[in-house]
TrEMBL record:
Organism for this UniProt entry: Clonostachys chloroleuca
Entry annotated with the keyword Ion transport: no
Record keywords, A-Z: Oxidoreductase
Domain of life: Eukaryota
Pfam families (alphabetical): TauD (PF02668)
Name listed for the protein in its UniProt record: TauD/TfdA-like domain-containing protein
Residues forming coiled coils: none
Stored InterPro entries: TauD-like_sf, TauD/TfdA-like
GO molecular function, one term: oxidoreductase activity
Length: 347
């Protein structure tokens, strides 16, 4: 059976005709006269950020030891022993623990237990976005760290990409400082736990770092909440151009990774954004990445108030279910009314 064609990423948009794909962004950017004065960086912000959170994909690809850890057989055995000891001390029986050998539900329980041993707070796990389309650059709704575990990878495509917010900012200040100002100074509004009525700023300068936590899906609807909230005005062209600039500069400097089954990818959700290429899959053995949102109250950095309020609302109650596939998630969603979109109010 022939594989379905995967749309080139530069032609992709989460909202075609509204959010700009790469050619549309380039056209909008080129429409400004060469001598146009875009002004300076946001008030109180530096011209350039530096530090370990500021990098380019090209640099990391040439220095893979900075971000890839390949576990030795001894380390794997040590982790497995710790996981089994932890699970035996829980409500799981010894038969369940002994069965943790192959990909699937047992594999997911075992490997996700690495996550459970350390962080002091965990958000609800959702297995959302059950489509094969690409994704534009975004922050996940909650947590300092996003963890992705590759349980099953069939078909082609699906490359994971990550971009440094500091690097994106540095480029924009040099070429389009008006975009940096808009995202740093304008307040954006949407309906969600922890978001005040007057809105929040989307990027923040704190402790010599760029902090951020936003997704354009908030303004267009996505997945379980496909329609934009009509109580708030649609994005202006200026705002859409700004999001287009952020998106395609992020792609320019991104790190691209083809995950393999068993890989666990950790993404700093405070200083980076991530995206994904479109993919095909074997419907009899669909692609499955398990996601967790993590926050550690002891080691988390001091957060900008806009982000802290949002995270506090998300982590204020313990998660009550951990779906391992979209069928279980959808069933539980029908029973509870809990949606993933924009951290909507739980009822």
């Amino acid at each position: 059976m022939a594989s379905a064609a995967i749309q080139p990423y530069e032609l992709y948009s989460d909202a075609p005709g509204f959010l700009l794909n790469k050619p549309e962004w380039e056209e909008a950017n080129a429409a400004h006269p060469e001598t146009f004065d875009f002004g300076k960086q946001p008030r109180g912000w530096p011209v350039k950020f530096t530090g370990p959170d500021v990098w380019t994909g090209d640099y990391l690809e040439k220095n893979s030891e900075l971000y890839i850890k390949v576990l030795s057989h001894g380390e794997i055995s040590e982790i497995d022993s710790a996981i089994k000891a932890s699970l035996l001390a829980s409500t799981l029986g010894s038969e369940t623990v002994d069965s943790i050998k192959e990909p699937g539900e047992e594999f997911a329980i075992s490997k996700s237990s690495i996550t459970h041993l350390d962080p002091s707070q965990r958000g609800k796990i959702y297995v959302s976005a059950q489509d094969t389309n690409a994704q534009m650059y975004h922050s996940d709704a909650g947590g300092d760290i996003v963890g992705l575990m590759a349980v099953s990878l069939t078909g082609t495509g699906g490359i994971s990409t990550v971009a440094s917010a500091g690097q994106v900012y540095n480029h924009l200040v040099q070429h389009r400082p008006d975009i940096a100002r808009l995202l740093a100074e304008r307040k954006f509004r949407w309906r969600a736990n922890g978001i005040p009525e007057d809105g929040v700023r989307l990027i923040h300068n704190q402790d010599n770092k760029v902090f951020l936590n936003f997704s354009t899906r908030t303004f267009i609807g996505y997945g379980e909440l496909p329609d934009r909230d009509r109580d708030y005005p649609p994005l202006t062209f200026e705002e859409r151009e700004a999001f287009g600039g952020w998106q395609w500069v992020a792609e320019q400097y991104s790190l691209k990774t083809q995950l393999e089954v068993g890989d666990i990818e950790w993404v700093n959700n405070l200083h980076h954004q991530h995206a994904r290429r479109g993919f095909t899959e074997d419907i009899s053995n669909p692609r499955h990445l398990l996601r967790v949102w993590l926050a550690d109250s002891e080691h988390s950095p001091r957060l900008p108030a806009d982000i802290k309020n949002k995270f506090d609302a998300m982590f204020e109650s313990d998660p009550d279910f951990y779906p391992l596939d979209e069928i279980e998630e959808d069933q539980k969603r029908r029973e509870t009314g809990v949606f993933t979109g924009s951290n909507a109010n739980d009822h």
